[in-house]
Amino acid sequence: MKLVRWVLFALLLISPLFAWAAPSMPSMPQMPSSPMGIPALTVQNAPGGAQNWTLSLQLLALMTVLTLLPAVLLMMTSFTRIMIVLGFLRQALGTQSTPSNQILLGLSLFLTLFVMSPVLNRAYTDGVKPYMDGHMAAELAVPAAAAPFKHFMLDQTRDADLQLFTHLANEKPYASKDDVPFRVAMPAFVTSELKTAFQMGFLLFIPFLIIDLVVASVLMSMGMMMVSPTIISLPFKIMLFVLVDGWTLLLGTLAGSFYT
Predict the structure, then answer these.
(1) pTM of the entire structure?
(2) What percent of the chain has pLDDT over 90?
(3) Model pLDDT for residues 163-190, shown as the tens digit of each residue
(4) Three-state SS string across 199-253, please?
């Protein structure tokens, strides 16, 4: 069943993300199995070398993968930078809840898929497809499929952040990107993404802040101190954003920042 093999492979793919952090559990004494107990795993051989898994294991693997998907999305893709910058844009415009959180989330998800499509295609070609076709074992397919994600993260990571977490992990400097483990690459990548997102958000605030200052100065000079500058400046900020084709400029800059 291709769906089951996809789920199991996804579970194996994200296993390196949390395997390093799992504490070693002491060995427990084996209890005698009850003759009335339900087997935890049942594997049936099918023609052609395929295997059929029990429904309980399929559901367990699927629920585990769905639980870890948000962490994978935030820690290994461009979603973090895109979502933070779009949030800064809404704050700079002063439009309160417009666009809504659902719109920003959906826009971030689709833009993330666009940015990550080369990485996903390479992971599918190098690891997923050979595993699905039975040409590669899971022990070899997992590193092959995870390598494009690690290279993407390290390409976006600053050397200072990578050196920081390498030092915190008591590791020596790595000779190449292939030697960097996930436990060092992920926190360094997230730290760099936060720094980059805040830098882009600062640049977004500058033109809108200038409009707020000009409107506030004009209102003060006219003696209209009781009028909120936000009410007057909001239409001008929206007009400026529309005239410069802000959405195209911002989304193009966000997508292009991952390829430079």
Answers:
(1) 0.72
(2) 10
(3) 888 888 888 888 777 788 888 888 899 9
(4) HHHHHHHHHHHHHHHHHHHHHHHCCCCCCCHHHHHHHHHHHHHHHCCHHHHHHHH
Which letter does DSSP use for residue 52 in this model? E
How many angstroms separate the CA atoms of 257 and 81, rounded? 10
CA angle 116, 119, 125 (to 5 degrees): 140
Query: Residue for token digits 């390829």?
Result: 259
Name which of 109-118, 206-215, 228-237 the model is least confident about.
228-237
Average pLDDT over the chain, rounded to an integer:
77
Q: Is 236 buried (19+), middle (13-18) or exposed (0-12) by CB count in 10 A? A: middle
Nearest partner of 55 among 45, 68, 40, 67, judged by Cα: 40
Counting runs of H as helices and runs of E as strands, what totals does the chain give?
10, 2
